[in-house]
Amino acid sequence: MIQITDMSLRIGQRQILSNITFEVKKGETLGIIGPNGSGKSSLVKVMSRLLIPDAGSVTLDGKPLGSYSSKMLARKMAVVSQEGLAPLPITVEEAVAMGRYPYHGFFRRNTARDAEAIQRALVRTGLEPLACKLLEQLSGGERQRVAIACSMAQEPEVLLLDEPTTYLDIGYQIGILNLVREWQRETEGTAVLVLHDLNLAAQYCDRLVLMESGNITRSGTIEEIMEAKLLADVYGVKPLVVTHPNLLLPQILLERSS
Ligand SMILES: Nc1ncnc2c1ncn2[C@@H]1O[C@H](COP(=O)(O)OP(=O)(O)OP(=O)(O)O)[C@@H](O)[C@H]1O
């Protein structure tokens, strides 16, 4: 669905990403992990055309990303950025309605089809009771849910979520990731998730891409990435890899150093 080949990105004099090659397959959940500053957000920005690489290619459904009009791209792909939604004085419903922009522009009235998509996104994200509240009256976690509702109202084929669980308590973290999973089941959508929590990444992703200093150190199955020596080298910690007793997936336990 998305193919990135030999892609490199410079910003000013700085090499941010180098020789990135990987594929996101239709219907899968791909996790991007790696230490702070390793290039995960920059990679998501390239995948969503917010940053233009200076070498290599990025294609979506076989066509260069650059060949899509903004509206066509927004119908295919929705992005929830790390920054989330600002606490603006607009209602939750108005914010979610912005997700319909690619179908009619900002200044046209919502059609019945738009209203249906907005309502579905509000229900799916459990935001219906908050529909008339202002964003500025919501908690950070609730605003995060609004950002995701907005991206779902967009009815994309691919959702790119950059650290969707940052600042959220464990209940909200699981809630957000379950939401994405349910959306995928219902729509056969594709998801790319940047996650810091490796245990959640192992539970919710089909495959992982591990980044380090602007490069992909390894990409592969959960078992191939959740490997003690590899994670120790990349993160500089001493992880103990154990098997989750119910899910039978690798999970890590960390040891304090002194
Ligand atoms: N606009 C910019 N100008 C210069 N350097 C930048 C710019 N944006 C990002 N960088 C640098 O690129 C590198 C990768 O940043 P990026 O935000 O992609 O990393 P990340 O893996 O998402 O980090 P984090 O986990 O901390 O969010 C960092 O060293 C960062 O300082």
How many DSSP helices? 10
CATH superfamily label: P-loop containing nucleotide triphosphate hydrolases
Strand content: 25-35%
How confident is the prediction overall: mean pLDDT? Answer: 93
Spatial strand arrangement across the major sheet: 6-7-8-3-9-10
Tell me the count of domains: 1
| pLDDT < 50 runs, ≥5 residues | none
Supply the helix-strand structural class.
alpha/beta
CATH-defined fold name? Rossmann fold
CATH class label:
Alpha Beta
Overall spatial form = globular
Query: Got a strand count?
Result: 12
Helix content: 25-40%
CATH architect. name: 3-Layer(aba) Sandwich
What are the bound molecules?
adenosine-5'-triphosphate
Largest sheet: 6 strands, mixed
Structural features, described:
- With about 260 residues, the protein is of the alpha/beta class.
- About 35% of the residues lie in helices and about 30% in strands.
- Strands 6-7-8-3-9-10 form a 6-stranded mixed sheet, sandwiched between helices. It has a 4-stranded antiparallel sheet with strand order 2-1-4-5, covered by helices on one side. A two-stranded antiparallel sheet has the order 11-12.
- The chain starts with a strand and ends with a strand.
- The chain binds adenosine-5'-triphosphate.
- Keywords: ATP-binding, Nucleotide-binding, Transport.
- GO terms for molecular function: ATP binding; ATP hydrolysis activity.
- InterPro entries: AAA+_ATPase, ABC_transporter-like_ATP-bd, ABC_transporter-like_CS, P-loop_NTPase.
- It comes from Aneurinibacillus danicus.
